[in-house]
Amino acid sequence: MLGHESLVAMYKRLEDCQLLERLECYALWTIPSVFPSATNIKENGNALIEHDYQSTGALLVNRLATKLARTLFPVGTSFFRIDITDEAKDRIRKQLGAEADELSFVRLEKEACDQLFRNASYAQLIQLLVLLIITGECLLVRQDDKIHIRSLRNYVLQRNHIGEVQRIIIKDCKRYFELSPEVQQFLGERDANAKLELYTQVLKVTDPKTRIVRWEVTQEVDGQVLDGIKIYRDKLCPYIPVTWSYMNGDSYGRGYVEQYAGDFAKLSELSEALTRYELEALRVIHVYDPAGAFDIDSAVQANTGDFITGQKDSVQPYEFGVYQKIQEIRNDLETLKQQLSVAFMYAGNVRDGERVKVIVALYKFN
Question: What band does 347 get if pLDDT is binned at 50, 70 and 90?
């Protein structure tokens, strides 16, 4: 009989390290802080960020995320509609009486839409869109009337053959004093600053008889299983994995940046090469003819307007770099930027009425 697999072991088994390395590259080409390298993450303070030699990727991703947010969740306008059947309306009227009129449903829509712009939830949704564009996958968590966003750096998924999520495992690194009093009592007395790994499992369970789906949430900390199981009905689970696009057979979604990875890689390499070449081209050295008559020491120490002896032809300035080559590289970079701008719907500074709005369907697998 096989023993019980801990959440720590299961997390390591489901983690895709090669995927994480690719996502680090996609983030480096666009917004490095979204998914920094694991080797640069510090215990205290901000992570050390490796920046690229161009910022075009950041501009394109930020503008696309902002456009999608305005399109999907417009300010001051209901972005969804409550459609209630006549039978449901009759039941509501029986419970609420005269208060349950058409205007009450309109007010309910407005209150639900306004809730999105409270507790910085709208900013979290923009962060979600940025993560989706770059990495293709993120986890939305509804907790304490707020929205929290997790990247693949902090959770893993397990899907079935048709892409439905069966299991989510979230990893949190917390200090002892950050844990709830119940968990502290369960673990016993420890150093307040002791670092512990808290693993949360969200497991999909289907009743074999009724086919009713529910989600069971359990936790482990420091290798010990915590007491208690939280159960959520299907579609009401606060842990919502979201993908940009999903291909059958994959474990995780794929982002928009991946589709243009070749152009972003070329843009990055050419930008770095051009920067280094231009810096080298700015160097100026002087070639001196030993047989010529020229006082080198006096020339080095001379100020503007001083007189020195010697033949000026004995010293010639030498500069690196060829302007034509620099111009050709700049033209190639401009072509790449134009191609990516079209793909990311960026047309420079134009009015809102001239922007093309495209609604992107965000697939949610519970």
Answer: confident
Query: Which one has a higher pLDDT value, 53 or 47?
Result: 53
Position 136 confidence tier, pLDDT thresholds 50, 70, 90: very high
The amino acid at residue 45 is: G
How would DSSP label each residue in 100-132?
Answer: -SHHHHHHHHHHHHHHTTSTTHHHHHHHHHHHH
Sheet of strand 146-150: strand arrangement:
146-150, 137-143, 239-243, 363-364
Q: What is the pTM of this model?
A: 0.82
**Using the 8-state DSSP alphabet, how is residue 78 labeled?**
-
Cα–Cα nearest to 115, from 149, 73, 151: 73
Whether residue 302 contacts residue 308, with contact meaning beta carbons closer than 8 Å, is answered with: yes
Hey, how many other C-beta atoms are within 10 angstroms of the C-beta on 9?
11
Determine what percent of the chain is predicted with pLDDT higher than 90: 45
Closest to 151 (Cα-Cα) out of 22, 32, 34 = 34
Number of helices (H) and strands (E), helices first, in the chain? 11, 12
How far is 363 from 194, CA to CA, in rounded Å?
39
Residue 79's pLDDT band, with cuts at 50, 70 and 90, is confident
What are the structural domain ranges in the chain?
Answer: 7-259, 261-358
- Judged on CB neighbours under 10 Å (0-12, 13-18, 19+), 89 is middle
- Three-class SS of 43-73: CCCCCCCCCCCCCHHHHHHHHHHHHHHHHHC
- pLDDT tens for each residue of 304-330: 888 888 888 888 888 877 888 999 999
One-letter amino acid identity for 213?
A: V
